[in-house]
Amino acid sequence: MTDDTMHLLDVVQKSDDGDFLKAIAETALQRIMDADVDNIIGAARHERSPERLTYRNGYRERTLETRLGSLELKVPKLRAGPSYFPPFLEPRRTIEKALTAVIQEAWIAGVSTRRVEDLVQAMGMSGISKSQVSKLCKDIDERVSSFLERPLEGDWPYVWLDATYLKQRQGGRIISVAVIIAVAANTEGRREIIGLNVGLSEAAPFWIDFLRSLNKRGLKGVKLVISDAHEGLKKAIRQVLGATWQRCRVHTMRNLLARVPRAQQSRVATAIREAFVQPTQEKAREIWRAIAASAHNSLPKLAQAMAEAEDDVLAYMTFPKAHRTKLHSTNTLERLRPKR
User: Fold this and answer.
1) Among residues 44, 174, 239, 331, which one has the fewest Cβ atoms lying within 10 Å of its Cβ?
2) pLDDT in tens, 268-320
3) What angle do CA 73, 79, 83 make, to 5 degrees?
4) Which has more confidence, 259 or 96?
5) Do residues 45 and 56 make contact, with C-beta atoms less than 8 angstroms apart?
6) Is there a single domain that holds both residue 35 and residue 143?
7) Is residue 333 part of a domain?
8) Nearest 5 degrees, angle CA 26-CA 32-CA 36?
9) Any idea what the Cα angle at residue 20 is, between residues 70 and 16, rounded to 5°?
């Protein structure tokens, strides 16, 4: 899988505490085990069949450690015959790549039977029918769709918007698509994924339609939107949300230092960071403007870029001080609510 795909899954996982991704992974593995046991028994649960060899006899719990976290699984037990133990739980068997491929595809384009068949093969299982695979695909797709289309209740004062590009097969060709994700924090500090969509580019109409879809689902009370400086996105935020825009501080710093000779970058970065640690926006502006003024002759491109970025990169400093460490960048993917 590509680094971009891993980035997307990391965003999804960290933005919702990983709970939903874990639930999808557990569902996929559980359904495959249940289908495998149905084939061994010769009948589905509660099915009357002359081919039935035995019956289920409860479960035993097992934990599978993955990059998505600890997956809690229920391994079916049989009333008679050899005990059932799925091959994928054996030491040294790796199913990570196939499992994450299924989950990533569920978020982006719906799960294909080929991906699930790859997962079944990686799990060391055989005899899973086409209809069982199709049923699992439908189950996962419905869960993801339900999550992404759920109503949004209450106010969501802070919204983070991010995007990445992935390779996707369409019509026999591999193309690059933009995957955009929206994360928001409600008034209780709970941070959740509130939307995800796929398009061919990050043009303004794409972002506008995406944000309007969030509004239709109930997004309201937005006070600050944090994102990078993509022009299409900025236009959509102004047109649809009408909230204050915070330019991602990390991206801004990279942009500024690109205008500074390498030998001077460390010194300039240290000076700029001094503005970010000030207790008020007024103090931060004073230092920001002093740095820009000192660079006017020696580093004119830096001075100009700093002047253009000032309002947007310091916008978060008008919000509560306790929230600011989470509001200045799209790179921060932790809950605003402090841990108890």
Assistant:
1) 174
2) 999 999 999 999 999 999 999 999 999 999 999 999 999 999 999 999 999 99
3) 55
4) 259
5) yes
6) yes
7) no
8) 140
9) 100
Average pLDDT over the chain reads 85
First and final CA of the chain: distance in angstroms? Answer: 36
Mean pLDDT of 58-74: 87
Work out the angle at residue 55's Cα, subtended by the Cα atoms of residues 52 and 61, and round it to the nearest 5 degrees: 140
Order of all β-strands in the sheet with 191-199: 191-199, 173-185, 158-170, 224-227, 244-247
- Structural domain boundaries, residue 71: 3-148
Residues 144, 254, single domain; the answer is: no
**Percentage of the chain with pLDDT > 70?**
87
Torsion over CA: 93, 102, 25, 120 (sign): negative
Taking 60 as the threshold, does the pLDDT of residue 170 lie above it?
A: yes
Both 111 and 32 in one domain: the answer is: yes
Q: How would you classify the pairing of strands 224-227 and 158-170? A: parallel
Provide the domain count of the chain. 3
| pLDDT of 28 above 70 | yes
Same domain, 124 and 32: yes
CA distance linking residue 40 with residue 83, whole number of Å: 11
Q: Are 244 and 281 in contact (CB under 8 A)?
A: no
pLDDT higher than 80, residue 96: no
Report the C-alpha gap between 37 and 76 in whole angstroms: 7
Same domain (yes/no): 240, 267: no
Per-residue pLDDT band at 139 (split at 50, 70, 90): confident
Please check whether residue 231 is in contact with residue 207, taking contact to mean a CB–CB distance below 8 angstroms: no
Residue 13 confidence (pLDDT): 56
pLDDT tens for 232-257 read 899 999 999 999 999 999 999 999 99
Residues 168-191, mean pLDDT to the nearest whole number: 81
- Secondary structure (DSSP) of 227-274: E---HHHHHHIIIII--EEEE-HHHHHHHHHTTS-HHHHHHHHHHHHH
Both 198 and 268 in a single domain?
no
